[in-house]
Amino acid sequence: MSRIPVPEEKSPKSSVTEEHMYQDVYDAIMEHRLPPGTKLTEQVLCQIYSTARHTVRKVLTRLSTEGLVDLEANRGAFIASPSSQEAKDMFEMRNILEHAALAKVASHAGTRQLAALRKLVNEERAAHQRGDRPTWIRLSARFHLELAMLTDNALLVDALHRLVSRTTLLIANIDAPGQNACSFDEHDDVLSALEKGDLAQAQHHMAHHLQHCEERVQPEASEGFDLRNVLGKSIS
Questions:
Q1: CB 171 within 8 A of CB 216
Q2: Could you give phi then psi for residue 203, rounded to 5 degrees?
């Protein structure tokens, strides 16, 4: 079975500065150190990373493509801040797409493909247990994309990539005792049902998982947020 690549997290032609800036901003968004609504001012980013404006624009465009940044004409770039209605619509669409993805995966995915997902869930759990929050969040989102990749449907993968990124940024800062915003335990339940050949149970667990995530969404805006307090090195 051929593999459909998820959009790369790193461009092979990106400069060291560009890649560093991208990863810095990406991690800050996912960890909610840069909350939804934060303005990403080009001039300030140029100063923080000692780089040219065209490099900053490439990074912002890349983050926009992934659904993490909104580019608004005559206003600039902002950390995506979906409304409550948009968040509801996105989770509804995710439920539809991931329900269909599970049906296709269950019909033809082999032991080797499911074993790769099992490895990913174990890595997600290990990252959480060692307190590596950025890796945990990244792997948590990656589970859904890797599952979608097993469908061999590039359009489905692309659609879920943006939806997963955009919904994850809204729940990444929320923890509750004994629970996880995008739980590896719930991923484990989905995968265990797939391994047993129980599609209905896998879909049930996925719907429960997505509902759990949606309940933790807290759209918010940020005003007057100082990027220098979060990103890059201090300006000398």
A1: yes
A2: -65, -35
Could you give the residue range(s) of every CATH 1.10.10.10 domain in the chain? 16-81+220-229
What's the confidence (pLDDT) of residue 176? 44
Classify domain 84-215 at the CATH topology level.
Answer: Four Helix Bundle (Hemerythrin (Met), subunit A) (1.20.120)
The pTM of the full predicted model, rounded to 2 decimals, is: 0.77
Tokens of 144: 């859904």
Structure tokens at 108: 């033809």
Q: What is the DSSP letter of 150?
A: T
Mean pLDDT lowest for which of 88-92, 207-211, 229-233? 229-233
Alpha-carbon gap, residue 68 to 80, rounded angstroms: 5
Architecture per CATH, 16-81+220-229: Orthogonal Bundle (1.10)
Residue 126 near residue 139, CB atoms below 8 Å: no
Per cent of the chain over pLDDT 90 is 44
**Vertex 102: Cα angle to 98 and 108 (nearest 5):** 145
Amino acid (one-letter) located at 183: S
